[in-house]
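User: Hey, my collaborator sent me this sequence without any context and asked if I could get a structure. I don't really work with proteins. Can you help?
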Amino acid sequence: MYWVFALMLLSAVLEGFGIVMLLPLLKSLGEGAFGRDPLTHTLSNWLGALGATSPVGILLLIFALYLLKGLVFFAATAMSGRLRAYLQRDLQARLYDQYSQMDYLYYTRRDTGHFFNVMNQVHAFVHVFYSFSQFLIGLLTTMTYLVMGFVVAWAFGLMAVVVGGAILLLLRRFNRLARTLSIQTAEEQGFFSKAFIESIQSFKYLAATGQAKPLRTAAMGSVDRMTSLQDRQNLAIAFTTALREPLAVGAIVLIVIVQIGLLEQPLAPILVSILLFHRGVNSVIGLQGSWQVTLMQIGAVDLVEREFDQLERQSAAPKGQPVAPLQRQIQFRSVSFSYGEGQKPALNELDLTIPALSTVAIVGASGAGKSTLIDTLTLLLKPDAGALYIDDLSAEQIDPSSWREQIGYVLQDTVIFDASIADNISLWGGDVATDSDLRSRITEAVHAARLGEFVDALPEGLNTLVGDRGIRLSGGQRQRLFIARELFKRPRLLILDEATSSLDADAERAIQESLEQLRGQLTVIIIAHRLATVRQADQIHVLEQGRVVESGSFDQLNELTDGRFRRMVELQSL
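Assistant: No problem. I've predicted the 3D structure and written it out in structure-token form, which is a compact way to encode the shape of the chain:
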């Protein structure tokens, strides 16, 4: 950026010299009244030393100065453009990385529209960088013209500074208005992004039930507010742009009248000063324009900067040592957690041991703490009290990423990407057409998830595109594709959170048979409301109000006369 400023300063100096060269040109032509003008005399001597005293020679020198100025300006502009491109790349990459490592609680407190809007505001952030750099460049250029104006005619230059300062003071109110409107616009864009994303994500339901109108009303209200804000911004820009020429010409006329009529200054320096002053006044108003554009987009800078600050404070960046593959057990030791001060604990002094290579089921009513238990186990949440141990290491001591690499996690809400079946399973692990080992592993996972018959019947097989969030698949097919991805990962710990809820009875039975084949090879934790899916678990733990209130096998718990598990079984008529 310093090179850009230096080149732009050099460009302004070259242009200024080109204008000043009009003094010896006019003298060589015998035009104009010079009076006692030491600058013209000095320039004439310098040109004589160069052998360029004729009008043609001076004109060629002026052309050379402007040609050099053009080359310097090109270099500065190209460098500035490259800086903006790299700034946008770095900001987007940094923001993406920060989002991928953000604290889970921070994620739960924001909507998707917020993240989408912040990422979009990076473009406006870069535009602010450009506008502000133009402001600084304009400031350097203005100073150059005014300094040269002082050298040519100091009284003229002094008056130019006074008039330019008055113009900036006159337009200060528009700067404050631009900043306020910018912040309001950035916030409104966030609201619109939220409404738009929610309507797209809920399109099927809204279209099928004819309830899109309320969301449209909210979105259109946001659009109307943004339109009003942008209209006011554009009016401010139009007003200051329209003032540029009248103010410049009016100021020049006033100063020339004073210089010739009252101060009786020689004409030739004044004519050259007029050119310099015109450039200077335009630069002053250009400063106002650049600063106003900067303030109009400053809301984006404010939004992005605040987001980076929040992410820095709440980053879930890896800390601690890598954890070895799970060998013995997972232990919750008096673990408590609540989602906020004054809220009822989701986990309340929970004690639970999960032996390695066992199949464990966690059951309980909604709100019992099952999801919070899993979020704590995956280190998305940090206990308020107590500790989680992986083998002999406390969760505080380990690198979360090294533990999560051992986990396969199948949720009820499927996570499917707009890509091929192969890429959804391997997460873009390679080309199945050329990598036979990859294809073999994917095929193995497909058949383990009981998806083989479906894939084999597709014309493009594993290369079949599934659409946005798997929209071209049925609910059961999406769930089995999700399971296939987690089995492809070959995890040490497999978490099934209502993983078979979208499957029919035959598909669910087939998946359970596949999991039975994995018994003893990995640790499996099953979260389920349908108790038929946990019959074969080695141990079942019943959660209530964040605590384990019953533990045992299916038959042991079912034999407890007044047991909570037995009541759940009776309600499901098992």
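In plain terms: The chain has a mean pLDDT of 79. You can pass these tokens on to your collaborator as they are.
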